[in-house]
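A quick word before the example. In earlier lectures we treated sequence and structure as two separate objects. From today on, think of them as two lines of the same record. Here is PucR family transcriptional regulator written that way.
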Amino acid sequence: MSPSVRPPALAASLFPASGTDAGGRDRLISALRERVPDAARDAVRQIERDLPVYVRAHDARCARTLAFSIEWAIGHFVDLLGDPDLPSAAVTEHFRRIGAAEARRGRSLEPLQAAFRIGAGVAIRRLTEGAELLDAPVTSATVVRMTQAMLGYLDQLASAAAEGHAGDGARQAGRLQARRRALLDKLIEPDPELAHIRLLAAECDWPVPRTAAAVALSGQPGERAPRPALPPDALVGLHRNEPCLIVPDPDGPGRRRALDTALAGRTAAIGPTMPVTRCALSLRLAHDALALVREGVISAPSPVTAADHIPATLIGQSPDLTALLVDRKLRPLLRSPRVHARDKLAETFLTCIENNFNATEVAARMQVHAQTVRYRLRQLEALFGQDLHDPAQRLEFHLALRAWIGPRH
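And the structure line, produced from the sequence above:
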């Protein structure tokens, strides 16, 4: 709780040192108290004129609270002028709660601080006018000191509001983070119900997108890896055993570039874009791609896109079947005793498949002469015969070559 507010003890200095008796001081304080309701009403009107957006955001109950708070703050200031030892904990706590309420509404402190400044200006004007109109000899220096005291007093109330805002804001942020984690956990369950997703999304102010993509991240919970500077609508699952993200609308304008920038410096794999109810599949494919990155099978710059490495992912899911496929499709090549030549032929075969057997394009990709490509093709034809150009076998050849070449390059 904030400490009690205390303006300077001005009651004795409202008059010159050789001035009037205590009765005169009491009359002055009494006259200032009479001006408190008018000063409060004027302050509320000024806030309504100068901060229409702030006032409009409140309902009738909040408007009454505003008027009550201003009158209490000004009245308590006047009471402190009469009795500097008057307890102030209640008014301080009241403004701390006001700051906390602003945090719960998701509002910044700026409108509240502006309202403090407006209220202080009106209160100073009305109270000093009241002091100057009395018969008592109140000097201009005393008015200045009273003005300074009012500003210091309201600064302390504003500090109490800021304390409440910060404390409740932190709690709100913690609750929001917990709700977003619960939403992420639901999204990556198999076949989650859209209605349940919408319910959890509403609780954490997350607009449900039509599509999303999951991102698998390297690292373990608690690992001191840099936290990605992600868009505010991304759901962050760094609390999970296998850290991940859910990124809404990943194919929107500029979204992929922003994601690549945010993930710079981390090993990550981005799953395919899916309907929001299929994030689990997107995450599974992202994890498969990330595992191949760790194994060195995929050597593309991070973050890798799982959809760009489907053949490598497929062959990585069943090592036994992959070994069988390699042996069955590449047996003529694997029997070659010349290891270096065998590797060059395999690389040429794969590049030919990926470039539709266009010798010129293959030569450019491999940075060799086209005649070298044609010479190797003749060697491959001698090994594989007509199977080499059979479109029905091209996919199996492609997968087998990818599986065999991958770990070597």
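Notice the following. Confidence is low (pLDDT under 50) at residues 7-20. We will return to this example when we discuss secondary structure assignment.
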